Amino acid sequence: MYVCGPTVYDHPHIGNARSVVVYDILYRILIKLFGKNHVIYVRNITDIDDKIIDKAVQDEITIAELTKKTTEYFHQDMDYLSCLRPNFEPRATDHVQDMINIIDLLLAKEVAYKSADHVYFDVTKATDYAKLSGQSFDELFNSVRIDSSEGKKNPGDFVLWKPAKVEEDVSAKFDSPYGVGRPGWHIECSAMSHKFLGETFDIHGGGVDLVFPHHTNEIAQSRSAFSGSEYAKTWVHNGFLTVNHEKMSKSLGNFTTVKDLINKGIRGDVARLFLLGNHYRKPLDYNDKAINDANQMITYWYRAIEPIEAKTKCNESQISAEFMSALFEDMNTHKAIKIINDYAKEIYLSKTDDIKIEYASKLLSCARFIGLMNASCKEWFYSHVDSDKVEKLIKERKLAKEAKNWPLADSIRNKLLNSDIVIEDKADGSTTWKKKT
Description:
Helix content: 40-55%
Protein name: Cysteine--tRNA ligase
Radius of gyration: 27 Å
Number of strands: 13
Number of domains: 3
Organism: Candidatus Megaera venefica
Strand order of the largest sheet: 2-1-7-8
Binding site for Zn(2+): 4, 189, 214, 218
Binding site for ATP: 250
Subcellular location: Cytoplasm
Order of helices and strands: EHEHHHEEHEEHEHEEEHHEHHHHHHHEE
Largest sheet: 4 strands, parallel
Number of helices: 16
Strand content: 5-15%
CATH superfamily of the largest domain: HUPs
Distance between the termini: 40 Å
CATH class of the largest domain: Alpha Beta
CATH topology of the largest domain: Rossmann fold
């Protein structure tokens, strides 16, 4: 499986995160089906691009410094979302020669041409160019703005190699038979997928916004370069993510990064559950209610297993057939999550510990399969609670009650309640506490 990865010039936004989480689920399913040693997952890093060059100039740092720190941001954010690392994560700048090799093949086959210090791909010479999009050739180019640079034979021809500008950082300049410059975006993925997976591989994934031109152009250049290549046998595209039902945009002030979620104190499990809450091909809207709903749901699951956590079994044998069947149904995570929630309901309704433990084992095993609930109940409910402070306040309240200072005792209870701590006075005179559900 090859998945288009980040262009590392800034913090990843939540639309980027949705794509990574979707293909993380697919990776987990493939491992379940074929075994870890029989699945190769490649996700590239684009570390040379016009946006990167411009951002490095803006930040007054080198391209290497920018891409290094931004790649680290990406990894930290995806770890927060509990995403597994791919088997290979090639960087575009390490594979420029592989790109040149493919461009040479395309030039030799006369499906590419040199013009005005550029190398272009001639889209009229590609077989079934528009097939992936399901549109006609004319419809495809009417739907997007096309760069009609001088020197192109056809407006839709795309760049394979472009010349460097004099003022650009030396790290953005590469030697080639066509002059000093850098590769176009599309050739990067063709070269890196070929390097790690060969001329034909099983699955290619990415956001629906990449269908055209990026994935369409990948197919065209790879199939043209390698006779008999299917390129990718199966294509998977995840849907758009909006914010409060509007397209995410810096100009609208709703541009939301994964770092923003972390800064708001939203837990990684909550963000991941939200991102899995709708079918991967459908649009998904980020809003406060959706995040609150995800938080309430996963807290409901933790509260269900809390009394029997020590007896709960969590292993592959506990993952239910109905749960896996939902995931095999075109990665229907919405249905799979409902099944987990149904297990939580059964725990609350069950009268015997044996039944509770059975459903708790299913719940925890299924949740962990999709990357959720890796924390213990104690960690979930109390990791952000200062236990010593709570105990100290409870002792102060006890003293206030003994002194019959009821207003002080009530104010301490209210102070704890405002911090989401619920206390309960027992018949034996002791007081227990827990985090409010």
